[in-house]
Amino acid sequence: MQSNSIAAAALACALTTALALPVEAAREKSFVGSWTCQVKGSNGTANSRLEVFEDGTVAGLTTVTMVSAITETEVVIRYQTSWSVDGDTFLETLTHANVQKVTVAGVNATAERYAQFRSSVKEQIGVRDVYAINSVTRTSYQLTNKLNGNSSICTRA
User: Fold this and answer.
1) Residue 92 in contact with residue 78, Cβ under 8 Å?
2) Per the structure, how many domains does the chain have?
3) Residues spanned by the domain of 95
4) In this predicted model, what pLDDT tens digit does every residue of 98-142 receive, in sequence order?
5) Is pLDDT at 22 greater than 60 in this prediction?
6) What would the DSSP string read from start to end of 93-121?
7) How far apart are CA 88 and CA 72, in angstroms?
C-alpha cells in the first residue's frame, strides 16, 4: 500500500515536471522578438528599443530621462544582457553597456559628468535583476522589478 502511494507521488511529480517544461519553454519563446518598453520610476523614465534573442541575449538602446527640481538629465545607453525565465520570474544580467550620450538641461554634459555616468553604468555589469512576470502575450509583456517595484511595460515593435 505504501509503495503504491510512493509510486503515485513519484508519477505525479514526474508529470508535473514534464508538463511544466513545455509551458516554461513556451513562455520563454514569448519574449523573443523586437520590443519597445517604458519604465517609470520616482525620478524619471526609461524608454527602450530592444531585441530579445532565443539564445538568451538581449541587445538594446535605452534613453533614460531623470527629472529633478533643478534640471533634466538624459542618458542614452546601448547595452547587452543575458536573460532567462524561471517559473514566474524573469532574470536579466547586464553583460555590456556603452553610454552614448549625456545631456543636462539639453546641453551636452561635461567630460567629468559623462565619465561619472559611464562609471556608474559599468558598476552594473554582472548585476542580476529579478522581475516578477505580471503578464506576457504575443503582443506585450509587463514585468515588475522585485528590488525597486518599478514596472516595465513592453509592446512588440
Assistant:
1) no
2) 1
3) 2-156
4) 999 999 999 999 999 999 999 999 999 999 999 999 999 999 999
5) no
6) EEEEEEEEEEEETTEEPPHHHHHHHHHHH
7) 35
